[in-house]
Amino acid sequence: MKIETTTLPDVLVLTPPRFGDERGFFSESWNRRTLSQAGLDLPDFVQDNHSLSAHVGTIRGLHYQAPPFAQGKLVRCGRGSLLDVAVDARLGSPFYGQWVAVALSDRNGRQLWVPPGFLHGFVSLEPDTEIIYKCTAHYNRESDGAVRWDSLGIDWGVTDPILSPKDRDAPPFAEWDSPFVYGGGA
Ligand SMILES: Cc1cn([C@H]2C[C@H](O)[C@@H](COP(=O)(O)OP(=O)(O)O[C@H]3O[C@@H](C)C(=O)[C@@H](O)[C@H]3O)O2)c(=O)[nH]c1=O
Known about the structure:
Elements: E1 2-5, E2 12-15, E3 19-21, E4 24-26, H1 32-37, E5 47-53, E6 59-65, E7 73-79, E8 81-88, E9 90-91, E10 99-105, E11 111-114, E12 118-124, E13 129-135, E14 144-146, H2 165-168, E15 180-181
Parallel strand pairs: 9-15
Antiparallel strand pairs: 1-2, 2-11, 3-4, 5-13, 6-12, 6-14, 7-11, 7-13, 8-10, 8-12
The structure holds dtdp-4-keto-L-rhamnose.
Dtdp-4-keto-L-rhamnose binds at residues 49, 51, 60-61, 63, 73, 120-122, 139, 164.
Keywords: Isomerase
Active site: 63 (proton acceptor), 133 (proton donor)
Enzyme class: isomerase
């Protein structure tokens, strides 16, 4: 298991080994014990999500659930490729408003750990891109929120993305009241 840091210290890139043979490959996409032995103990996961973005340039994000339903997410790409983005939204954090973008694909097998207190979003880079992610809290519709994708200077590589109505109407980061507090156990 390869564990890499990013420019945001709490956001990590995990790459489980793949065992390739003439059939393809085998990989343990999640193994609590292996991660723990590597020194990383993530919170418990209670929900797995899977979505398909049919077209290149689909952006989903930037999303969050407010406490006490804040979610940490372990994200990977099941098919195609995507640019996955995490934004530190914890008031008082030295990295507040900073973001990291990591390319995840079905080829590179990389996973992004997005902790609670971070906004999450992605753009699809290929048709029929599938994202799969484990969550540390259940979906709670009333706590679900979004921040405008283009309000943080993130280089998505697209200027006219496909968006849901919710994401099109989301407030810009500067006009949004973050419910997350640094060190507040978001
Ligand atoms: C997120 C979610 C949605 N839904 C329902 C609500 C709605 O009817 C339908 C589609 O929801 P959305 O438009 O919010 O789906 P989507 O835009 O894909 O939202 C997701 O985006 C990524 C970036 C995330 O990080 C996720 O946490 C989630 O916010 O699915 C659930 O039933 N459970 C869930 O956990």
